[in-house]
Protein 1
Amino acid sequence: MRPQQIRSTDLAARGAGKVRSSAKRALILASIAIALLAASAPSLAGASSLTQSRNPVSAQDLAPATDNQNGLYTLDGWGGVHPVGSAPSVAGSPSFGFDIARGLVTRSDHRSGYVLDGWGGIHPFGGAPFVTGGPYWLGWDIARGIALRADGVSGYVLDGFGGIHPFGGAPSVLDSPSWGWDIGRGIVLRPDGVSGYVLDGWGGVHPFGGAPWLAGSPYWPGWDIARALVLNTTGGGGYVLDGWGGIHPIGNSLPATGGSFWLGWDIARGMALWSTGPSTQPGGWVIDGWGGVHSFGGARVQSQSAFWLGWDIVRGLGGSNGSGGSRHYNVPPPPADPCQTGGVTYCVLNPNVTQATIYQTICVSGWTSTVRPPESYTYALKVKQIAAEGLPGGPSNYEEDHRMPLELGGAPWDVMNLSPESPPSPNPKDSSENSLRYQVCGGQLTLLQAQQQMVSTWLAAYPWYRQ
């Protein structure tokens, strides 16, 4: 199911173009690139992991937890940590010189913390001590999330395959998920510091370390759209953030109110819960890829200190027990072609229509008329197919039908996606096509789900659709 809370965008006009401020460019050009990352990273110890070259430290006494409304920070892809609202500036954040930052966590003082890079390196800022141990994958952008235990120096790193790797003395996790492909998107810990949850890109929330299952998690099979996961203070519930800005309660959490929603635009990047907010009106903040900070529930409105108009460069929001927001650029394995079932070709898809392009293609009124072939082409093909298949009657008894309709991403001109259909329009299949398109564009179904329904309901059920 798609999100229920639809709100107007707080972003500047989307058509502003990818405008980078000259100040940001100067900062970026002045930063040290890959060499600095390599220098700050630990030395290799084995083919796929290493122990970081940090001085061992003991857990220090942290300052008492404070209201995180004054302790929120934005992470940009190059490693910069930027205060939100009245949070103080912090020193020592990394500067990689390229887009490799993948996660941000703050300690309980809300003034210090750690940045995770895509290779697994953990970089302190704001006076946080260096950490020991942890994974490291030199040259491989595969780290996807970081979670910190209460001691402020130990925790876990999540890799894209679902592996959970301890650092700083945290105990090993033996029941982490394992998918075999890059779909892990976030990790959070419960108050006990040894159990928690992993978020996958389809919205699934997976317990580890003895954590109980949380009911109500959203799920979008085949669609990598989940962007962040946060837990409430009890660890018995929380929220999943999708890329459009939808906030979905899980476990014992109440539905969130307010917030921003960008229909069809994958631009939400991270989320933090208000640490001292009332349980009857949970609140927090969502950060978009340009740096805009959007409050929901009872949380106060915050002003952002960093904003990159037209540039999707934000990778996370730190300030509560949350993880995720690090938008990755690895392409997951494509789902099975719904037109190919059991060795039978029922239809052919238009490669220009995907879940990411539906609001530029099939959901635009009149779009199908721009790709529909002329009647001269479809009529001539219909005559040939009627004769070749030995169908009764003449051309007037049939409509040359797109098996997978143009409204659901069918190929316009491919003869394997065109067949004589009787009776001609209007007919029940037309109604089904329109209904499925409406559900896709309204967010009730993914494009893949609608295509699968079309194949199972109409194409696989009638033998004349087979080739």
Protein 2
Amino acid sequence: MDAAISPKNDTTISIRLKVGAVLDSQLLGDFALSAGQTPPANLFLPYEVLRRQLKLAERANLMLMGPAKTQATVNDRLGREWLLEDAELTIHSIEPAPDATGGEHPQPVVEVSSPRIFLEDSVVSAALRPRAVLLSIRDYVKLAAPEPEVLRLLGKESERNGTSALNSHEIDKIIRKARSQKSKR
């Protein structure tokens, strides 16, 4: 079935190669990932040759692992080796600018993208399952470096003096005045 979104060109390539040998079952010439009555039509060639012809980075569509005693062992190995790029996924945090949201500071959103047409169901369900709380930079700073008591007291004094609502131009003017008085002494 042709779909409007399926590309019409560059879907196949032709490679002319010289046969080096025909492998028998002793050399895994009949290797197959699933059982069947007919022998598989296998072609073994160096990965680099195929990668170069297809103009693809280091990619695979299957990962084989040796014996693993537990699921935890498999998860540990995957956690150390598997990257989002291996699944052709990228994740970006998008924090809307306050001027684009009327001065409000909405929570950032996360974008999961892929060069493939569709995301697999497992990727979508994993992306929708919260694992962490997303924080804006302002919220992160509040949590990572809580306000010391002295700054809190200075803030209260600034509110009492009416200096908490000064803009940067007014603050610069006060600083210049204080420096000029200090240099006269």
